[in-house]
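From the thread on structure requests for the teaching lab: each student submitted one protein with a one-line request. Submission from student K.M.:

"Model Acyl dehydratase from Salipiger thiooxidans, tokens only."
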Amino acid sequence: MGFNRDRLETLVFPPVTRRVTAKDALLYAVALGLGHDPADAGDLPYVFEAGQKILPTMAATLCTPGHWVADPDLGIDADSVLHGEQAIRFHRPIPLDVPLTGRSRVVNLWDKGPGKGALVEVECKVTDAADQPVWTVNRTAYLRGEGGFGGRRQPPAPAWTLPDRAPDITRDMATGPHQALLYRLTGDMNPVHADPAVAAAVGFDRPILHGLCTYGIAGHALLRAVCDNDPARMGALSLRFSAPAFPGDTIRTEIWRDGPRMLFRCRAVERGVQITTNGTFTFAKGPIQ
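Reply posted by the TA:
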């Protein structure tokens, strides 16, 4: 069965309701690598239940339709799908033990051309029981084997250029060889992150790290570096994945101040590879002076 463009464009996702428990939030933080230094008091509220806080980027893992690309009716080679872009607008901090409902829809499908794949953007709006917005996620998946169906081409993105100077802030996060196996327990069970045979079949010499793990690591770096470790300061966080990260990489987040916003990128230090680009962060309130 070939790629079913019509089915994808009209796909209806059922609402997903979830309560975030204290244990969920602790697992997410540990899966990103927080708590690596047991003496780091800044990480403690995210990995220990006393005075607990929730990492804002956990929103990327909640109330979404899951591994929907594996639906056989879509005709997508699900194992070859890569995470293209990720963005979240935080309307307020994530609450604990409150029913939250995500309503997802396909908002864009772009054809990159024969042999070049396709891009599909899914938006998920999450609200509480009173139908008040909590966060909005936009996620783009790169369907590597599905281009050339005669669809729309993606319009040019706004220019994103880093300042011509060294980063204003740099933060490193080491990942372990087991990182993808731990992170997948937060919800993304795609076998490309665990099974060497599946990874090899789509061109990788070993399982890759989840894009959302890198996204969370970047978010944590910004939270600590420019938000005074206060989740309520985070307004929006977006990036584009430019190369896969692997378990064991040290992920370096380089941050530049750019007026009222921050620009950033992530690099895999040991391999000298840039793994994200187009990183943009805005505050919910004014920046820390």
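TA comment: The domain at 157-289 is CATH 3.10.129.10 (Thiol Ester Dehydrase; Chain A). The radius of gyration is 19 Å.
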